[in-house]
Amino acid sequence: MQIDILARPANTITKITFARNEEITAEGGSMVAMSGGLDVQTTTHKRGKRGIARAVKRAFAGENIFLNHYKAERDGAHLYVAPNLSGDIMTHELQGSSLIVQATSFLAHEASVDMDVSWQGFKNMLSSEGLFWLKMSGTGKVLINSFGAIYPVAVDGEYIVDTGHIVAFDEGLNFSLSKVGKSWISSMLGGEGIVCRFKGKGTVWCQSHSPSGFGNALGRMLDPIVEYQQ
Question: What is the pLDDT of residue 173?
Fold first, then answer.
């Protein structure tokens, strides 16, 4: 399987070229275009397997209940996938490890990768990320998208990231929510609010822009809807 990431970093799209019988699972609605020679099945989990419980958990995480599975019937068949928001895409290869991915950042994974929903505890209720994250485990490639550019941060000890800028992180890292300044008042007045404090050794992948921040800024520029009565 050949994965080519095109038009990065602002309007990235991925072209996946298959060898015969290779398969990939993609987020519902992410397909842009595809050649002939691909068999497509839509399920709630793996191809040919039911996973209602996992689908319900994905819904709580903000993901699509249904997943599309593309299997090549010939060499050279290809598929284009892209996220809803403009930004970058990265390929991460799992080698018997696990990766925690924020909701809305999952794009696709090879059939050998298993996706489940990871419970991150009630501490996440105060953040913009929700209670659930996606957990990718096994062996194979995972495609992850970001809003804006995506970049890795090596953590060796402690590192602080704004909750709206987290894309993914190694499962071995511990995190907690905290204030960025010495007091909650200074943190709120400074516009940062709640941040995520990672501890341990591993990698955090961050995005340069925050979808919630963009939405708030855009909302302030929109004219209010005024209803006129005759």
Answer: 93
